[in-house]
Write a structure and sequence with these properties.
- It is built from six helices and seven strands; from the N terminus they run αββααβαβααβββ.
- The chain is an alpha+beta fold and 171 residues long.
- The C terminus is likely disordered.
Length: 171
């Protein structure tokens, strides 16, 4: 009887994430063009879109053109680029004023890791007043990851920091 070996690439996920990021930055092997209401074309990879979105998977399965162009009504290139940042990098840095539009587009495109429940929880977070335990100027940064919105507040004088995380999608 032959013995079976299991070989595992320990940095596989990190390498895959890095590879997606590199493909996008170097603009290599694009095979689909996306266009929104502002008529700006954003290129992407069918396999990456399909892996991250049921919407894209369903459309791209039906298309047999080697480089299809998909028109996304109600979507601007700014929002689309945020969505692609999230898909390719696994996170996106976005201003609070853009968050609702981002989540609406993510819902429309059925982006994995983002859904209506997550939007409601994030809105609840923004409606609450998070009071800092200090009386000095506060610098606030919010960033969205696959399953959480992080809000980081730094006290400039005391160098203390407070991070608030809200679940965006319970799996």
């Amino acid at each position: 009887m032959m013995e079976k070996f299991n070989l595992k690439w320990n940095d596989f996920q990190a390498n895959l994430t890095n590879s997606f990021s590199t493909l996008r930055k170097e603009k290599d092997f694009y095979d689909v063009s996306l266009v929104g209401d502002d008529d700006l074309i954003v290129d992407a990879h069918k396999v990456v879109l399909s892996a991250s979105s049921e919407f894209f998977k369903n459309i791209l399965r039906k298309v047999d053109h080697y480089k299809p162009m998909v028109y996304l009504s109600g979507v601007e290139s700014k929002e689309l680029n945020h969505i692609l940042d999230y898909i390719y990098e696994g996170e996106v840095q976005i201003f609070q004023e853009d968050l609702d539009n981002f989540l609406d587009v993510a819902k429309k495109l059925k982006i994995s890791g983002l859904n209506e429940e997550g939007k409601e929880e994030m809105n609840d977070m923004h409606e609450k007043n998070y009071q800092a335990d200090f009386d000095t100027e506060i610098e606030e940064t919010s960033f969205l990851t696959d399953t959480k919105v992080h809000r980081k507040m730094e006290c400039k004088e005391k160098k203390t920091e407070k991070t608030v995380s809200v679940l965006a999608n319970q799996r």
